[in-house]
Amino acid sequence: MFHTQEKFILLILIFSVSSLLFIALFTGVLFRNIKIRNEREIQIRDTMISTQEYERNRIAEDMHDEIGPRLSAIKLNIQKIESELNNDLCQDLIDIKQGLNEVISNIRTTSRNLSSQMLAKIGLVEGIKETISLFEKHKNVKFQFNENCNQYQFSDSFQICIFRIVSELINNSVKHSNCDRITINLIKNASILELEYSDNGKSENKVAENAGLGLSNISNRVKFLNGNIIRFSDSFETGAYFKFEFRI
Predict the structure, then answer these.
(1) Cα–Cα distance between 186 and 102 in angstroms, integer?
(2) What is the distance of C-alpha 132 from the center of its chain?
(3) Closest-CA residue to 137 (of 110, 118, 117, 160)
């Protein structure tokens, strides 16, 4: 009887140990698969962002090297023709030339904004200021930009991602909401950078519903920087609001 009990206890112990080993093995395999999947997602996200930056730089170079000079040449030809025309036609050409000047200026600014090399030279804060200046000049939108990190040296990859996030947010507001005021706060607090963005959009077509690709790009860049979306809201009454935190 006692011998039988010992066998039974031994079997229970063997079964328990085997079960624990199986659970440990299963858990290890599960975590390994999750790790592999996360690494693949990170790799895909990194590749996508790298590809986007490559294409942006290529387009910026084409705009700077090809389109800009061609438009400048057209402007010179218009100036030559002006002296040979009567006053009415000359005034028409002056109007065309002024419009052409605006296009050339926009191309130069857009080329600078697209180029990550240029951003590396002027820095994150100045890059955002240039973008704001462009939108204030050509769109009926007023900006309030508050920052305390103009002297801080961010890494190139970090400031490029933050700049793209801000640019996407501005584009979404201008395209998908009827806003006329945008506020951006970029505040460094110890080892944390806080990005706070809001607009007063009143459009019935919500940003979240109409700007899926832009918001997806924003989310990917936040993940790329291991940042957090602390808060997001988009309502007809109050407009859009985002708050992000990034460790630096």
Answers:
(1) 30
(2) 15
(3) 110
pTM of the entire predicted model: 0.64
Beta pairing class for 142-147 and 181-189: parallel
Helix axes 124-138, 87-114, angle to 10 degrees: 150
CA–CA separation, 43 and 23 (whole Å): 30
| Residue reference for tokens 């100045």 | 126
Runs of H (alpha helix) within the chain: 2-62, 68-82, 87-114, 116-122, 124-138, 156-176, 207-210, 212-224
Region 56-69 average pLDDT: 65
* Residue tagged 């996360």 (tokens): 38
pLDDT band at 26, cuts 50/70/90? confident
Supply the CATH classification number for the domain 123-248.
3.30.565.10
In 7-16, which positions are buried (b, 16+ CB within 10 angstroms) versus exposed (e)?
Answer: eeeeeeeeee
CA distance 171 to 182: 11
Domain boundaries along the sequence of the chain: 1-114, 123-248
pLDDT recorded at residue 38: 63
Neighbours of 94 (CB within 10 A): 13
Secondary structure (3-state) at 20? helix
Q: In what order do the strands lie in the sheet with 181-189?
A: 142-147, 181-189, 192-199, 239-247, 228-235
